[in-house]
Amino acid sequence: MKGTLNKKLSGLVITSILATSIFIPHENSIASAVSTTAIEKSTNVADAKFVNDYRNVKKKVKKYNEWSKFKRVSDDLKTKNHTGSITSDRTVSWSGSVTGDVKGLDYSLGKTVTSSVNYTMNVPKYTNVYMGYRVKYAVEEGENHRIDIVTGKTISKKKYKIKKTMNGQYQLVEN
Predict the structure, then answer these.
(1) Is residue 43 predicted with pLDDT exceeding 70?
(2) Which long-range contacts (CB under 8 A, 24 or more apart) does 153-158 make?
(3) Domain boundaries, the chain
(4) Of 42, 44, 86, 172, which cross-links 77 as Cys (Cβ 3.0–4.6 Å)?
(5) What pTM was estimated for this model as a whole?
(6) 37: helix, coil or strand?
């Protein structure tokens, strides 16, 4: 019984020594913890740091609608003393466009507008025409001002023009 008690006692002593060495930090680690938590002397200088120092703003904005020029979507049809019909046999497409500097501005060019094949129109007497297709644009033009958000002053300004496609139109165009 004495041998069993000694074994249990020695096991308990070893376990407590291991636990103590794990949970009590060494002097080196205590010194490093103190040095890293030392508070530096403040200089009482506040320095503002901004993520984005500038903002882009639209100014002198004009909005209006504008039609494109016609693009041919059929061959010619020449009628004399009778009426006729003309059918589109090709497709044409338009997309929006941007000219100038639009960096930092929100805008959309709209969807691509495409004519279709087999669209038919009636042609009156005594005409020489072809079928054309054009697109309507929503146009926005103005100035893109880059403004300092602290002072509110304009740093730079550049002109821009955005043409957003809206819808298309078929029409008979005279030769």
Answers:
(1) no
(2) 155/54, 157/59, 158/100, 158/101
(3) 2-36, 54-174
(4) 86
(5) 0.65
(6) coil
